[in-house]
Specification:
Shape: flat
CATH superfamily of one domain: Ferritin, core subunit, four-helix bundle
Number of strands: 0
Largest sheet: none
Radius of gyration: 19 Å
CATH architecture of one domain: Up-down Bundle
Strand content: under 5%
Length: 126
């Protein structure tokens, strides 16, 4: 057990309020080790979704500024890009006409919102 987690665990046990600590170096290593192990289906679409999901979560790991508006926009840009990437996978591999249509709509909506958020960041010094 790493030192930060052990300290947090001990402190958490000794108080009424649980304490949660995260060693970002260890967390990143654990995520890498977990993603390196095959889990579930290993078909091309599943691998593509897993890669898009991993990239989205990595990109959402922003450094928070304490400015709620800016932090929200930065995190949401990555989140929306992840939705676009997954929708493109649906268009590549999906068969259902209704879901393929939805994927196209998601791409259009999310691209417009990313454009709006990037414009907001540019205007607001982000």
């Amino acid at each position: 057990m790493n030192r930060v987690f052990t300290t947090a665990l001990v402190l958490g046990m000794s108080s009424a309020t649980p304490v949660v600590a995260q060693d970002h170096n260890t967390h990143g290593k654990m995520q890498h080790e977990m993603s390196a192990k095959p889990a579930g289906d290993q078909s091309a679409p599943s691998k593509a979704f897993a890669a898009a999901n991993a990239k989205m979560h990595e990109d959402m790991a922003i450094e928070f500024t304490g400015k709620a508006d800016e932090d929200f926009v930065r995190g949401m840009i990555a989140h929306h890009q992840g939705a676009i990437d997954m929708a493109k996978i649906e268009l590549e591999y999906g068969k259902d006409a209704e879901i393929r249509k939805l994927a196209g709509e998601i791409i259009a909506a999310q691209e417009a919102e990313i454009k709006q958020m990037k414009s907001w960041l540019a205007k607001n010094g982000g």
